[in-house]
Structure formats: C-alpha cells, structure tokens
Amino acid sequence: MSGEVWAPYVEAWASTRSVLTIDLTPSNLESRAITLDKLTDNVAAVWEYLGVSASVVVGCSMGGMITQLLALTRPTRVTSCVLISTVGGFNQKGAATLRERARLVQYMDSAEATEDALVRWFGSAVVDSEAAFVRRARRLLLGTPKSTQARTWEAIAEFDLRERLAEIRQRCLVIAGDRDTSTSVRETQQFARSLPDARLELLVGAGHMAILESAGEVRATIDTHTPWLVGGDDDRGAKVM
Questions:
Q1: What span, in angstroms and rounded, lies between the C-alpha atoms of 171 and 57?
Q2: CA angle in degrees (0–180, nearest 5) for 140-141-144
Q3: Do residues 229 and 79 make contact, with C-beta atoms less than 8 angstroms apart?
Q4: Is the model's pLDDT at 64 over the cut of 80?
Q5: Measuring CA to CA, how many Å separate 27 from each of 103, 154, 200?
Q6: For 192-202, what is each residue's pLDDT tens digit?
Q7: Rounded Cα–Cα distance for residues 189 and 182 (Å)
Q8: CA angle, corner 205, sides to 199 and 211, nearest 5?
Q9: How far is 55 from 57, CA to CA, in rounded Å?
Q10: Residue 195 in contact with residue 174, Cβ under 8 Å?
Q11: In whole angstroms, what is the distance from residue 146 CA to residue 151 CA?
C-alpha cells in the first residue's frame, strides 16, 4: 500500500523528527516479481541515496516483515524497530492460505477484492460504518493493481524468519490490535517473546490495520516508548509476558 497511510504520523512528527515514508509496492511493479528481499533492498537504496545513516524503523504488516529483514541485513543502520500487526513467519497452513488468497484475488473484480481486504483489516461492522479511515483505505486499495496484490501475497507467503528472530539485537516495540483476525493475540505474544529485547503493547478494539483505525493510539504508543527506542533506560510501558 502507498506510503500515504503514514501521512497523519508525518504531520504529527515533522516538527520534532525527520520522517521518511516509502511506497513498498508502487504500481510500476505490476508486471514484475515481488520479493520481500527486493523490497528490503529498495528501502536500503533509498537510505543510501538520501544519506540516511541510521534510523528507527516503523513497519506495519508486510512493512513489519521488511523491518525485520532490515534489522538482520543492515544492523548498523537500524537503531530500533516498531513492528505493528506483523509476525516473524508462517507455518505451512498459514503460507498455503496466503497463496490461495493470491490466486483468488486475480479472479475478483477490483471492488470485490478491495471489500474482501477491508473486512479482514477492520471487520464487517467497522467497514459498514464507512468511517473516514475505511474510505481512505478503500481509495488506496483501489489504486493498487490486483496483480500487484497477488504478487504481494505470494511474497509474504515465502517470508519466514522464525528461526532467526533471536539474531535481531535491536530493541523492538511490538504493537497489535486485540481484534486482529490476521494475527491472533497468542501469535503476537509468541512473536514478541522470540525477540531478545522487545516490548509488547496490545490496543483494545483495534483490528489488523491499526495504523489507520487507531492512528492516535498507535502514535501515542510509539511516543511513549520513543525514549527507550532511541537508547534510554526508562522502564515505562508493557514488557513481554
């Protein structure tokens, strides 16, 4: 999805921090293969071009997977990680579900594929509310070609760092919604426990795309933990249980 999803965060943080947002799957990838390794390299290339030596990296869902890859492959450039609505990999059943989703989306019309994604992200009741963030998400999804969506699901299905999570030495803030149907609370807790230096925050009432649905809470949670993320010794916030 477009880096535009981070616009409210940029607006809130721009006066105190340097903020860079990146489109992970722009439309010009429509006819090309997508892998998370390639997308990770793309982020690193943008850093190189702009002269970014190191950064706190924030990623949601697939972006959180790329954040993990950056932490492993460019450890000196990743100060710490904020991992939102994401996991370290999938078992065979989970990967098969993603591949089937990639296959099915190609047979849906754009509107049908979009509504299917919105229900997974927010739940039927929230989608029916036609809240502003739902309309915004719909607009962004309709702007993403179905072929790109399918290739993205295929790439996510191949992602598995579960055996390497202990190698991520950076501090990691894990944020998830307790209504996320894509990643259960139990899976999120297990993921956070697998990281050597992690904190976990669960947002009550938030679904998978919490960065849109609960933007204020996500931003406030990151702000609360920022002193720790940048190397401080504060003991605020939730520890992994």
A1: 11
A2: 95
A3: yes
A4: yes
A5: 19, 17, 34
A6: 999 999 999 99
A7: 14
A8: 65
A9: 6
A10: yes
A11: 9
Architecture of the CATH domain 3-90+162-229: 3-Layer(aba) Sandwich (3.40)
- pLDDT in the model for residue 34: 84
Residue/partner pairs of 63-71 with CB below 8 Å, 24 or more apart: 63/24, 65/36, 65/156, 65/159, 65/161, 66/24, 66/36, 66/39, 66/40, 68/161, 68/165, 68/168, 69/36, 69/37, 69/40, 69/161, 70/40, 70/43, 70/44, 71/168, 71/170, 71/172
Binned at pLDDT 50, 70 and 90, residue 32 comes out as low
Amino acid identity of 14? A
- Structure-token pair, residue 29: 């990838």
Coil, strand, or helix at residue 90? coil
CA angle 67, 70, 75 (to 5 degrees): 125
Model confidence band, residue 241 (pLDDT cutoffs 50, 70, 90): very low
One DSSP character per residue, 163-202 reads TTGGG--SEEEEEEETT-SSS-HHHHHHHHHHSSSEEEEE
Residue 207: both structure tokens together: 């679904």
Helix (H), strand (E) counts: the chain: 11, 4
Separation of alpha carbons 172 and 175, rounded Å:
10
| Length of the chain as a residue count | 241
Domain residue limits, the chain = 3-90+162-229
CA atoms of 31 and 48, how far apart (whole Å):
26
- Mean pLDDT, to the nearest integer, of 3-26? 87
